[in-house]
């Protein structure tokens, strides 16, 4: 049937202007027998049910493209208007009446001709919501259920619950969706706690993204069967690295150590060894542990807790490269030359005994000349200076190839024992953090190169080049700010963008320009095909170094063992594993987005909660986004708030979307990206995760408007963040 479906698609695409009725297709495919006609008719019905083909009023079959049907993720704003973002055209608008039961985040099929602005949802392909989190609140109409998701608060709902359940003011609950449509029918299935209880706020966000802390009993039963000590028999067939200086380098609070590094300086440069916990030895395919890890996709790092992909008994125990104990590992051994190139490599199963558990802080102190720390770790010799020299060479080569170094600052939110934020400051990043990042990237590149050229099934980490449209928009905006960026008409190369960033690095607008360019990038994702990583300027790249907290890394380890170490030659199994890798890649990409969204939602909520205690205080910040309804200002501590257009009472301001600026029509006062302004905190809402600023003191610039310069109002677009990739910490730094 797959072959017949392909032939149908080929026929339809070859006949764009007609002759696409059932009889036409039968004749065109040369199907003459009754059984062939029946098979064709059945396949077309199935394709129609699956929304692969569509039938016009004249019974002409059409592909999605011929029928002007687009697939996308619908975003619904607070006013109820839906939007479908498209790379090659402006966002499609969807009126409330045309949303066809779709909720915010659903994957939908939309009918919209290329020349149309508005479209209509014809089907929901995948639901983003299976449940709704909310709070019971007493109103003048009695006890009502208020969804946490502001975008759902205008949705008509019917709430059901058991007879013995009594809703109480402030009770936070989980409701399963029983029926989509108007009204949305939901049923209370779980009580989380009360909204002011410590930790309930973050738990609610996590559950809203299908992130659950507790593991099923069958998973814990399997964990309890796993020995917490390595046996002699498990060392067979592995290379012994226990006599070499090997260390883990992590944050002060880290408890799971999945990577260790060691280096030896030699005549050819450095012999770098990156050893990664052999999690796949313990988490076997399709076991309860594996199924749960696959479902979670990754660990999630939020303000006050970690929701691990694997139970702590594993991630902090036998799978953690704790100091002074033997652990099973997979090692990428790389010969790095003085220029930072990987000239040769080996990948093999091994076992290590970590010499020391090092922290970023202590390694930075050693490299900075702290005599006390140097004396404390003198038994490691020149390990850290050799590591630094090797990593610096690797970074230098990566930069030479054109890797893009975006300027980004992450927040470190400190909370008290009840989860209330007490301080927010930019996260510091030193030489030690860069060393580990460089070593991990080198190992990931090495393993990707090996798997690709050995044609072993794998999950790759891919990052496609940005679209010409997005880059052209950025080029225009940058030129308006006085910074020229020249790119090719068709292809874009990372070294062009990095040269541009270098050229503006000393300007006041650098932070904003870097952030805006980052938003132009496509999101990195997982795929079974090796497409390359644009941002890192690497032709082959994957994730190998964190199998404790990322499912794709675990799959890569399995494929290495099966087809390289164990030399499996079964072609049928290889073909099946290729399909599974694509399936796992797509699922892991979805789970990674949910995890990242949860992390950002928690940060935004805690920042708003923190600023509730600083209303009336004044700060200097920088404008990071300008829209028709106001502009966003980021403070030095990474907190971002909105200066609403309605608060600018000194003039009538017009929005110029081409120049990304607001201009007063009478006084010509200007507010644009990258400009420093003085603000006062007017309001903050933890519940809505919003912060409002007002201007204070002297702000803006008076511009000279030429006669031919027209100011106009533009459409409002969502102000979005495009997070950078990460390794540990809060889960968002170094996710290469």
Could you walk me through the main structural features you see in this protein, from its secondary elements to its overall organization?
The strands form ten sheets. A five-stranded antiparallel sheet has the order 5-4-3-6-7, with no helix packed on it. The protein is of the alpha+beta class and 736 residues long. The longest helix is centred in the last third of the chain and has 41 residues.
How is the topology of this model organized?
Blueprint: H1 2-14, H2 22-29, H3 34-49, E1 53-55, E2 61-63, E3 69-76, E4 82-84, E5 92-94, E6 107-111, E7 120-126, E8 131-139, E9 142-147, E10 157-160, E11 171-179, E12 184-194, H4 200-208, H5 217-223, E13 239-240, E14 247-250, E15 259-266, E16 269-277, H6 288-296, E17 300-302, E18 305-307, H7 312-318, E19 326-336, E20 342-353, E21 356-359, H8 360-367, H9 371-376, H10 383-401, E22 411-415, E23 421-426, H11 431-453, E24 460-462, H12 468-480, H13 494-504, H14 510-520, E25 525-527, H15 551-565, H16 571-611, E26 618-627, E27 630-634, E28 640-644, E29 653-656, E30 661-664, E31 669-672, E32 676-685, E33 690-695, E34 701-702
Parallel strand pairs: 10-12, 13-20, 14-21, 28-33
Antiparallel strand pairs: 1-2, 3-4, 3-6, 4-5, 6-7, 8-9, 8-11, 11-12, 15-16, 16-19, 17-18, 19-20, 22-23, 24-25, 26-27, 26-32, 27-28, 29-30, 30-31, 31-34, 32-33
Helix pairs in contact: 4-16, 10-11, 12-14
